[in-house]
Write a structure and sequence with these properties.
Helix 6 (153-162) packs parallel to helix 7 (190-199). Strands 1-2-3-4-7-8-11-12 form an 8-stranded parallel beta sheet. 29% of the residues lie in helices and 22% in strands. It is an alpha/beta fold and 237 residues long. It binds zinc ion. The site of zinc ion (ZN) has 4 residues, from loops.
């Protein structure tokens, strides 16, 4: 595994830094891989704070940066809200342009509510129904899997593995995605961890940083992954 942060935001959506400045910060923090995945297809945010109507512009801009880098690798991602209340029906997504990205993260899969309110549960089956049209790596952003799949740990692990859907373990900036003050991965039961390992579900790490402040600060997650023999996704190898 190379030191990475695969979940970050820039001022293309609601992040503080430009992509160029975030790249510079990633260098200073000695990251090997930076994943930028700005928001899209969400009613949570104004159009000017997401890339939904500017996918081409975003892609071309990040591709130009990507080509100019050495030492640090940039992965171009997109974070898509699939909640029932705020997000998009996956069947309506523009798959052709999505296939030009390096990866996609779906947020709020099978999630009834988040720490800030109800989001509306959309089953993972709706995401899986378009999975075979996506030729790029697909993952779940900061999913509270233990709560969302309580009692179905083995079943969901098998489904994720069979459909090549990775999960992001997030050490979140300022407790952004937490339950009872703990990052979601810290709620994972032994049963869930065992199922993820047994089925070979792949993992990436992210902070969901919007300010750059905690960019790449993922040592606790790295330790959790190695202690539990979880496997990283090739995106971060
Ligand atoms: Zn995010």
């Amino acid at each position: 595994m190379r030191r990475h942060d695969l979940h970050t935001h820039t001022n293309f959506s609601d992040g503080r830094f430009s992509p160029e400045d975030l790249v510079q910060l990633a260098r200073e923090k000695k990251l090997k891989i930076l994943g930028i995945c700005d928001h899209a297809f969400s009613k949570k945010l104004l159009d000017s704070y997401q890339i939904t109507t500017r996918l081409e512009e975003y892609l071309r801009h990040l591709e130009t940066i990507q080509k100019s880098l050495n030492g640090l690798m940039l992965r171009i991602g997109i974070e898509i809200d699939v909640s029932k209340n705020y997000g998009v029906d996956p069947a309506l997504l523009p798959v052709d342009i999505l296939n030009q990205f390096d990866f996609v993260l779906f947020e709020y899969v099978n999630t009834a509510s988040e720490y800030w309110g109800k989001v509306g549960r959309r089953s993972h089956m709706e995401v899986i129904s378009i999975r075979n049209q996506l030729e790029i790596p697909v993952g779940l952003a900061h999913n509270d899997i233990q709560q969302n799949y309580q009692g179905k740990e083995a079943e969901i692990s098998k489904i994720l593995a069979q459909n090549e859907i990775f999960i992001e373990l997030q050490q979140s900036e300022r407790g952004r995605n937490t339950r009872n003050g703990m990052d979601y991965y810290n709620h994972f039961s032994q049963r869930l961890i065992h199922s993820l390992v047994e089925n070979g579900v792949r993992i990436v790490c992210g902070t969901d940083t919007h300010t750059g402040e905690f960019l790449g600060e993922l040592d606790d997650v790295y330790q959790f992954i190695s202690q539990n023999n979880l496997q990283y996704h090739e995106l971060v190898m």
